[in-house]
Amino acid sequence: MDLKDKIRSIENYPQEGVIFRDITTLLKDAEGMKAAIDEMTAKLKDVDFDVVLGPESRGFIFGMPVAYNMGKGFVPVRKAGKLPAEVVSKEYALEYGTATIEMHKDAIQPGQKVVIVDDLMATGGTAKAIIEMVEEIGAEVAALVFLIELDFLEGRKVLPGYRIESVIHY
């Protein structure tokens, strides 16, 4: 199955010149969604890790079933102000401004190995911010897995030395 066929491309959204890769068409297709999650899980078959981290919100969609398939726990990485206990946070650059993400400080432990799962890697900014939080706690990033990677934005360049796996490339 070609998963690209299950993803809708919307031109000039959210702004002129951008092609938005809409995964909602993949998610509503039971076979496509299963194939995507199975392929993301397969990318981790030889990775030694303890827990999956997924950023809000589409990282939740893919991270939870990957964690379940691998028999691992799941840690949500949220937008600022959404978590009730003590957090570690990181501000990162967006195309027009900045954003802050957080996770519970006790969600992972020093020495643990984590996998970051998300729907899309563009410039790598979100992934880099999560990596910095993980390493600040004293844990290690074993791999990053994305459903889609926008190769032309060269997100890998801001993540040298990390194992990055992507199912679909544009």
Walk me through what this model shows.
The structure is a single chain. This protein has helices spanning 24-27, 30-42, 58-70, 125-137, and strands spanning 8-11, 19-22, 51-55, 73-79, 87-94, 97-104, 113-121, 140-149, 164-169. It has 170 residues and is an alpha/beta fold. Strand 1 (8-11) and strand 2 form a beta hairpin. Helix 2 (30-42) packs across helix 3.
What does the overall shape look like?
A: globular
Widest sheet: strand order?
5-6-4-3-7-8-9
Order of helices and strands: EEHHEHEEEEHEE
Q: Approximately what portion of the residues adopt beta-strand conformation?
A: 35-45%
Total helices: the number is 4
Fraction in helix = 25-40%
Number of strands: 9
Major sheet characteristics? 7 strands, mixed
Straight-line distance between termini: 17 Å
Rg over CA atoms, rounded to whole Å, is: 16 Å
Low-confidence stretches: none
Q: Provide mean pLDDT, rounded.
A: 96
Give the class from helix and strand content and strand pairing.
alpha/beta
Give keywords.
170 residues; alpha/beta; seven-stranded mixed β-sheet
Topology:
Elements: E1 8-11, E2 19-22, H1 24-27, H2 30-42, E3 51-55, H3 58-70, E4 73-79, E5 87-94, E6 97-104, E7 113-121, H4 125-137, E8 140-149, E9 164-169
Parallel strand pairs: 3-4, 3-7, 7-8, 8-9
Antiparallel strand pairs: 1-2, 4-6, 5-6
